[in-house]
Write a sequence for this structure.
C-alpha cells in the first residue's frame, strides 16, 4: 500500500493527530535490507545503474544540489550516467568531482548514490529504502564524504594529514578545522546519520590550487582535537568519527538519536523522524507520515518532537521521559504532551538509558490516550519546598534560601585538594557541599535537616530509600572530603542538572507527604508545595547505584484533575531520592495531560 501524507503537516498536532501520524508497521525481515541498485562502470567506461546483486560497494555521502549551495570547480560538472530505463542523463548529483573520487578510490567497487539508486518517482520505494538506510551504510565497504563547497590551502591540508611531531611550521589546525567544518555537509541531518552509520570514512574536498584532496576521517578528527586545544570554540562533535565505535553501538536510545539530528538541517523537517528510527535500528514503514519539503516553522519542529516521543513510548523506549526536565523543553505544559521530553545535549542518563535499570516490568500496560499518557507509578503530595540558589563570585560563595542571602568566604577555610579544581563537575560539587554546610548552620531547623539529607544523598550513592541525615558539623565533614583527592566523581557528574550555568545552581528541596526529603530541579513553573509528584515505574530506578543510576525523574501535576479525569503536568524535574513505593503511594495509575 502506498504511503499517504497527513493532511495538515503545517498545523500543530494534537495528541490524537500525533498518534495517527505515527501509525505504521515495524518491519522485522520482510523488507529488503540492502540497496536495490548500484552504479557500475560498463565496458565503455560509463557509469550505469544496475540491480544490486551482492557486489561490494562504496556509499557516497554528499549534499544535494540546491539554491544557494555554491559548489566549486569540477563539482559543477556533470557525469554521464546510463539510467536503469535506458536514457543517458547528465548527472549533477553524481558530479565529475564525485565520480573521479569514486574511480580513484577502488575502480572495481560499485557505487551507491541515493539519487540514482533509489527511484525518485516511486514514493513507496523511497519510503522502504529510507527505512533501511542504516543497513545500506553499515554494509558499505567505505563511505566517501564529499565536501563540494570547500577548498583547502596547502598549510590547512598539511595540518590535517601530518602528526604532531612532524607537522610543519606553516600548518594551522585551527584554520583547517574551521575550513572543513564550515562545509554545508556538516550542517545536514542526513549527513550526520551517514557518518554515524559508516564503519570507515574518507573525506574529499577541493584544494585552492584546483586539485582534489582526501584524507581519512580519523585523521581529520585528530586535527579537530589539536585545534580545540588551541581554540575551545571549535565545535565539538559528540558522535562517531569516521567509524562505528563501541560507544555508538551502546547508544541506541531515542534520546541519543534525537540529540544527534535535532539541530541539523533537513529539507523536510519530518525526515528527522526517519533518521531517528534509522539510528535506533528501527525499520518502520509509516502508513501516513507528514511531509513539509522546504517549509520550516515552530509548529513543524514541535510536531516532529511529538512524533518521536510517541514512537519511542510505543516501542517501550522511555529515554525521553528521562529528558523531560530540561529548562528549554518546548513541550512543557502543552496539553497532552506535558510528560514528553526533548533531547538534552550530552545527558548520559537519558542517552544511555537501558530498560534493565528501571522498573518497567511494573507497568506493562503504559499507553497513550486521547488526552495524554496513562502510566502506573508512585504518587505523593509535596508538603514543603525550600528554593536554593548557589552562586560563586571569586572567593565568595553566595547562597539564597527562599530569597534570603547568605555569604561564605571560602578563602577563610583550608584550601581544597587540587583535584577539586580540575573539572567543572568537581568545582560544582565542591560548591554544593560548601553551600549545604553553610545552610546547616543558618539556624533554621527545617533547612538544616534538608541540607543534611541532601549531603547524605551525595555521600551514599547506593541506596533505595532516603538515607539518614549526615550528622555532626557539616562544615567539618565537607572539609574532610575536600582536603583529599576527589572520590565522588560519579555523583559530581550526575549533579550537572542543578547548574544553570558554570557558577550558578538552582534547585529545590522538598518534603513529601510521607516525610521523605528529595532534591529536585527542572522546568516546573511556580511553587511546588501543594502539587502532586508522580514517578512512573518505567523511569523509576530499581536501585540507585553508580555510575549510571544516581537520579530519578518525576512529573509535577496539578492537584485537581480535569473534567476528563486527567491531571495537567505543569513541568518535570530530575532529582535525588524516590517516592516510597508503599501502600497509599505506590502502584497508582495516573492519566497525565
Amino acid at each position: 500500500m502506498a504511503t499517504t501524507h497527513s493532511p495538515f503537516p503545517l498545523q500543530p498536532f494534537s495528541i490524537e493527530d500525533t498518534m495517527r501520524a505515527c501509525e505504521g508497521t515495524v518491519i522485522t525481515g520482510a523488507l529488503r535490507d540492502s540497496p536495490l541498485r548500484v552504479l557500475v562502470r560498463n565496458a565503455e567506461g560509463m557509469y550505469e545503474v544496475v540491480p544490486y546483486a551482492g557486489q561490494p560497494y562504496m556509499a557516497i555521502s554528499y549534499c544535494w544540489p540546491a539554491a544557494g549551495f555554491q559548489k566549486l570547480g569540477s563539482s559543477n560538472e556533470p557525469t554521464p550516467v546510463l539510467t536503469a530505463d535506458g536514457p543517458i542523463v547528465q548527472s549533477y548529483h553524481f558530479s565529475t568531482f564525485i565520480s573521479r573520487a569514486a574511480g580513484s578510490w577502488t575502480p572495481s567497487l560499485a557505487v551507491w548514490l541515493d539519487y540514482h539508486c533509489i527511484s525518485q518517482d516511486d514514493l513507496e520505494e523511497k519510503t522502504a529504502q529510507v527505512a533501511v538506510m542504516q543497513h545500506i551504510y553499515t554494509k558499505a565497504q567505505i563511505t566517501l564524504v564529499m565536501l563540494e563547497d570547500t577548498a583547502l590551502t596547502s598549510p590547512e591540508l598539511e595540518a590535517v594529514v601530518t602528526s604532531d611531531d612532524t607537522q610543519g611550521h606553516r600548518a594551522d589546525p585551527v584554520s583547517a578545522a574551521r575550513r572543513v567544518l564550515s562545509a554545508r555537509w556538516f550542517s545536514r541531518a542526513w549527513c550526520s546519520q551517514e557518518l554515524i552509520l559508516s564503519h570507515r570514512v574518507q573525506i574529499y574536498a577541493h584544494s585552492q590550487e584546483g586539485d582534489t584532496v582526501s584524507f581519512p576521517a580519523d585523521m581529520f578528527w585528530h586535527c579537530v582535537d589539536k585545534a580545540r586545544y588551541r581554540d575551545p570554540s571549535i565545535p565539538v562533535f559528540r558522535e562517531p568519527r569516521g567509524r562505528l565505535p563501541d560507544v555508538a553501538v551502546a547508544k541506541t536510545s531515542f534520546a541519543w538519536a534525537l540529540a544527534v539530528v535535532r539541530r541539523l538541517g533537513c529539507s523536510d523537517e519530518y525526515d528527522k523522524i526517519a533518521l531517528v528510527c534509522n539510528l535506533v535500528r528501527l525499520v518502520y514503514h509509516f502508513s501516513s507520515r507528514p511531509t513539509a519539503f522546504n517549509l520550516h516553522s515552530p509548529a513543524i519542529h514541535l510536531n516532529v518532537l511529538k512524533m518521536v516521543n510517541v514512537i519511542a513510548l510505543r516501542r517501550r523506549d522511555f529515554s525521553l521521559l528521562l529528558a523531560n526536565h530540561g529548562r528549554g523543553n518546548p513541550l512543557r505544559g502543552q496539553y497532552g504532551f506535558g510528560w514528553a521530553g526533548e533531547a538534552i545535549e550530552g545527558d548520559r542518563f537519558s542517552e544511555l538509558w537501558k530498560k534493565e535499570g528501571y522498573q518497567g516490568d511494573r507497568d506493562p500496560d503504559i499507553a497513550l490516550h486521547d488526552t495524554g499518557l496513562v502510566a502506573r507509578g508512585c504518587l505523593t503530595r509535596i508538603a514543603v519546598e525550600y528554593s536554593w540558589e548557589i552562586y560563586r563570585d571569586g572567593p565568595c560563595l553566595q547562597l539564597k534560601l527562599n530569597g534570603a542571602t547568605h555569604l561564605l568566604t571560602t578563602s577563610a577555610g583550608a584550601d581544597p585538594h587540587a583535584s577539586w579544581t580540575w573539572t567543572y563537575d568537581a568545582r560544582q560539587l565542591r560548591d554544593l557541599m560548601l553551600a549545604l554546610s553553610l545552610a546547616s548552620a543558618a539556624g533554621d531547623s527545617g533547612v538544616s535537616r534538608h541540607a543534611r539529607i541532601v549531603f547524605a544523598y551525595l555521600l551514599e550513592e547506593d541506596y533505595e530509600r532516603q538515607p539518614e541525615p549526615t550528622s555532626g558539623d557539616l562544615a567539618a565533614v565537607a572539609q574532610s572530603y575536600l582536603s583529599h583527592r576527589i572520590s565522588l566523581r560519579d555523583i559530581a557528574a550526575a549533579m550537572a542538572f542543578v547548574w544553570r550555568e558554570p557558577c550558578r545552581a538552582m534547585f529545590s528541596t522538598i518534603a513529601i507527604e510521607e516525610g521523605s526529603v528529595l532534591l529536585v530541579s527542572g522546568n516546573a513553573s511556580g511553587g511546588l508545595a501543594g502539587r502532586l509528584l508522580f514517578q512512573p515505574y518505567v523511569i523509576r530506578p530499581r536501585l540507585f547505584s553508580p555510575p549510571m543510576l544516581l537520579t530519578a525523574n518525576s512529573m509535577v501535576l496539578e492537584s485537581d484533575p480535569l473534567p476528563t479525569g486527567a491531571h495537567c503536568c505543569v513541568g518535570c524535574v530530575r532529582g535525588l531520592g524516590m517516592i516510597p513505593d508503599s501502600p497509599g503511594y505506590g502502584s497508582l495509575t495516573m492519566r497525565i495531560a
